[in-house]
Amino acid sequence: MLKLETSRTPLPAPLWRLGFRPFFLAGAAFAALAVFAWLLALNGLSGSWQPTGGWLVWHRHEMPFGFGMAIVAGFLLTAVQNWTGQPGLRGRPLMALAVLWLAARLGWLAGMPALPLALLDGAFLPAVAWAIGRSLWAVRQRNNYPVLLLLSLLAACDGLALAGVVTDDAAWQRQAAFAALWLLAALMSMIGGRVIPFFTQRGLGLAAPVKPWPWLERLTLGLSMLAALASATGFGVLPHPWLVPLFAALGACQALRLARWYSPGIWRVPLLWSLHLAFAWLVLAASGAALWHAGLLDNGSLPLHALGVGAMGGLILGMLARVSLGHTGRPLQPPAAMGVAFAALNLAALARVFLPPLWPQGALWLAGACWMLGFALFVGYYGRMLWTPRADGMPG
After folding, report:
1. CA 304 to CA 300: how far, in whole Å?
2. Which CATH number fits domain 15-387: 1.20.210.10, 3.60.15.10, 3.40.50.300, 2.60.120.1440?
3. CB neighbour list of residue 8: distance below 8 Å, 6 or more residues apart
4. pTM for the full predicted model
5. Nearest CA to 197 among 107, 259, 288?
6. Which sequence spans correspond to the domains of the chain?
7. What average pLDDT is seen over the chain?
8. d(CA 195, CA 201)
9. Residue range 94-108: average pLDDT?
10. For the chain, N or C: smaller number of CB within 10 Å?
11. Which residues are CB-contacts of 321 (< 8 A; sequence separation ≥ 6)?
12. Residues in Cβ contact with 287 at an 8 Å cutoff, skipping those fewer than 6 apart
């Protein structure tokens, strides 16, 4: 049972009461601002300003490791409290972790020398893993150790990326970014497999959630890990026919899972169709990677952006909208504007993945504008929820 504070225990300011609050807010704001800065740089509008390593190095690192890891940290630091019954990180320790994340983001943009930046940035994920691992170990909750393993592997990928920045090794940077995206796919698969059937059942009032097929869950996770391993070793960053069966099988597994979860009623509930569409992008990403490795798709960045924009961005925005309501003591009815936000995010993915061959410059601006709109709407409508006390008067 969760060890709640007594009435005599002073609570920190609302923003520092649980991990989702600062990291969801900061991560969503950073998502919008970072894409704006990237668009300016792509069009020569950033002047002489250069982040550490240059704009391409910055973009390649900051979308998975800056934005993505902020949301992962916020979600896991919150979820581990429910999983273990142990109090989550809060107060000054949570503030210190958030400051560490922010300092690394500012260090990149300020052009901080590569080695001290690597030490600063590289400390964040191990700190998150320690905070989560401590709670899991306290109750010996072995069924969630795979989450800790994935987080540790993501920290290793960040270390590889940062080593590439320090040594000016573009190959290491690419390998780390590719591997991180497929590790995030593995984490999304694991968490999504737990919550999306349950959310669908609750949101539609069904009798029971769809029961997972353990073999399918293990196979999907294993294939995602193999995709990440292939990328981390450099084998998967160039087209290779031997990898076609791996990605084709991964796409088929994700498609089967999504089909099992589907119910026609999801289209009435934005908090549901947003999550299901995010997993549809995961299917497209794996299938597109199979086509690229088979030599049937010229641009290997398109499936990666299906993964990063459609799947990762879509799942993050959908989860932010739902988790923030639940953990601030509000009914699971998002503001109407979030339907626009979810649609904008999916339009961003469509523009970034399918339009570049037809409309190269315009596709990037359209995709960026829609991405920024989606996350700006979240910040605008949820910001107050995240920095004020729970609506139901409970701590947290």
Report:
1. 7
2. 1.20.210.10
3. none
4. 0.94
5. 259
6. 15-387
7. 94
8. 10
9. 98
10. N
11. 270, 271, 274, 334, 338, 341, 342, 378, 382
12. 247, 248, 251, 303
What's the pLDDT score for residue 8?
Answer: 56
Instruction: Please state, in angstroms and rounded to a whole number, the distance separating the CA atoms of residues 142 and 128.
Output: 18
Give the long-range contacts of residues 228-234, CB within 8 A, separation 24 or more. Answer: 228/153, 228/157, 228/179, 228/180, 228/182, 228/183, 228/185, 228/186, 229/179, 231/175, 231/178, 231/179, 231/181, 231/182, 232/157, 232/160, 232/175, 232/176, 232/178, 232/179, 233/175, 234/171, 234/175
Are 77 and 18 within 8 A, CB to CB? Answer: yes
**pLDDT tens string 323-353:** 999 999 999 999 999 999 999 999 999 999 9
8 A C-beta contact, residue 153 and residue 183? yes
Least confident of 3-17, 41-55, 313-327, 346-360: 3-17
What are 276's two structure tokens?
């299901």
| Amino acid identity at 101 | W
- Phi/psi-derived region of residue 388, left when phi > 0, alpha when psi is between -120 and 50, beta in every other case: beta
Would you state the pLDDT for residue 86? 87
Please check whether residue 83 is in contact with residue 141, taking contact to mean a CB–CB distance below 8 angstroms: yes
> Which of these, 70, 87, 91, lies nearest to 24 by C-alpha position?
70
Q: Do the Cβ atoms of 247 and 289 come closer than 8 Å?
A: yes
